[in-house]
Specification:
Layout (H helix, E strand, L loop, with lengths): L1 E10 L3 E4 L2 E10 L6 E8 L14 E14 L5 E14 L20 H4 L17
Antiparallel strand pairs: 1-3, 1-5, 2-3, 3-4, 5-6
Length: 132
């Protein structure tokens, strides 16, 4: 799994490739380095609709998988192709999910000792057989 944050540059329409397969391509500009890169992603099947809530010019974080495949041309030449398969897209700076503190999970109190009632321990020094 990989993530990339950038600005949406292109949002293409959904293309019905076959009766059982549809895809939607989009381009995100990554400006994290000195030379901006335009990165093309694709969403497939039911993931195409996640792009309906996104507009060009918006800052997004794309979660994606890298896919690769081999193809042999009719002339017998073998070629390899890569695809960046997007499976989640979130607007940068969007509100935290309901029930989540503004600071994220790290802002939650996850200390189990704070929630547990403390019991007083009565240690009788005469029955203590520990050497310290």
């Amino acid at each position: 799994m990989f993530k990339l944050t950038g600005t949406v540059k292109v949002l293409n329409n959904t293309v019905q490739v076959s009766e059982k397969f549809s895809k939607r391509e989009f381009v995100v500009t990554d400006t994290s380095s000195m030379y901006p890169q335009d990165i093309m992603f694709q969403a497939t099947q039911d993931k195409c609709s996640m792009l309906d809530a996104v507009q060009t010019g918006e800052q997004v974080e794309v979660s994606f998988n890298l896919r690769g495949r081999e193809w042999t041309s009719p002339q017998g030449e073998v070629k390899y192709f890569n695809t960046l398969e997007a499976w989640r897209i979130e607007k940068v700076g969007a509100a935290a999910p309901q029930g989540m503190p503004q600071g994220g999970p790290s802002a939650m109190n996850l200390d189990p000792m704070a929630a547990a009632p403390s019991a007083a321990v009565n240690v009788d020094s005469e029955d203590d057989d520990l050497p310290f």
